[in-house]
Design goal:
Blueprint: H1 2-13, H2 15-25, E1 41-49, H3 53-59, E2 64-73, E3 78-87, E4 92-103, E5 108-115, E6 120-129, E7 132-140, E8 146-154, E9 160-168, E10 176-188
Antiparallel strand pairs: 1-2, 1-10, 2-3, 3-4, 4-5, 5-6, 6-7, 7-8, 8-9, 9-10
């Protein structure tokens, strides 16, 4: 019985140094993991979708507004955010929750998100270059058509930034530029979850 108790104690104690070694091996988040820090806080956004054809002639461009909230996540390696868009009557149009994780091994961002009202998820990647963050991904438009997207965050300041999303419906052979644009104005430097 004593031998069994000693063996059990040894088994319980042995993994602890291994765990401690793993914790010691974790390095702080690199400076590049702060590239999305401009998004942290709370923002008011104005969204302008590109419209054309008969609908645009009759109704004009819809007025869409919303809020974008973001906070640090995953021990400094990521940013988590929530984007809510409503139309001019206050009807919900979009609710997207995204986790943005910096991959040290790939030197780029990996994004995973969900569009709550449409029941869809998405994956994308992002890189910082020339004072802008460019996100490459895929999506499905309001008519159910799949597209590739390149979304650029630019004009980034302490109290504002702009977003332009271009879309391709032919695997990148041609692009519909500025299919969606956003202008964000800071409301707060922090955001509640």
């Amino acid at each position: 019985m004593k031998t069994l108790a000693l063996l059990l104690c040894a088994v319980l104690i042995l993994p602890m140094p291994t765990l401690a070694q793993q914790v010691d091996a974790v390095t702080p988040a690199p400076a590049a993991a702060r590239q999305f820090d401009f998004l942290i806080g709370q923002w008011d956004v104005e969204v302008t979708p590109k419209v054309g054809g008969l609908a645009a002639m009759i109704h004009g461009t819809p007025r869409l507004v919303g809020t974008w909230k973001a906070w640090r996540a995953l021990d400094g390696l990521g940013v988590q955010d929530e984007l809510r868009i409503v139309d001019s009557a206050g009807n919900p149009r979009n609710l997207t929750h995204t986790l943005r994780l910096y991959s040290v091994a790939q030197s780029q961002w990996t994004l995973t998100g969900v569009e709550a009202y449409r029941g869809r998820s998405f994956d994308a990647t992002a890189v910082w270059a020339q004072d802008a963050m460019t996100v490459a991904g895929t999506g499905v438009d309001g008519e159910g058509k799949a597209y590739q997207s390149r979304t650029r965050f630019f004009g980034i300041g302490t109290d504002h930034f702009n977003v332009q999303q271009d879309r391709s419906y032919d695997n990148g052979a041609s692009w519909d530029e500025a299919a969606l644009t956003m202008e964000a104005r800071r409301v707060s430097t922090t955001a509640s979850r």
